[in-house]
Fold:
Amino acid sequence: MSRSPPRRLVIDGAPFICSVRRGPVTADPACTVLSAYGAGRRLRIRFAADPARGCLSGDAGLATGSVRTAGGQWVNLHRPAVMRALIDAGLAAADVRGDERDGWALLAVAALPADADAGSGASA
Structure:
């Protein structure tokens, strides 16, 4: 698995350790996971590739930590503002301890920054 160095974010006054990793090469479908741990909570946001819908992640030839939505938007999960928006949306939808959430559903409701794809290294 490919893994980025952990990043520390403060969310609602509590420190969270966040990381983005690519799922196992043998995973079917390929996936990318954004994980956040802190304040007695944990959250895994999973982006499973669905090429038939145009949702790409994992081993789909993308830069590690980039996903492409069905609408063609590239999102760089390594950006702190993107992490925070997805974690905020995920924690709002999760139980008190947290759990695993569908990343594609969270992208639809998260307040992403206008330049969510900046620095992704991907081109449409």
About this structure: The radius of gyration is 13 Å. The CA atoms of residues 35 and 44 lie 4 Å apart. Confidence is low (pLDDT under 50) at residues 120-124. The beta strands are 7-11, 14-22, 31-38, 41-48, 66-68, 74-76, 100-102.
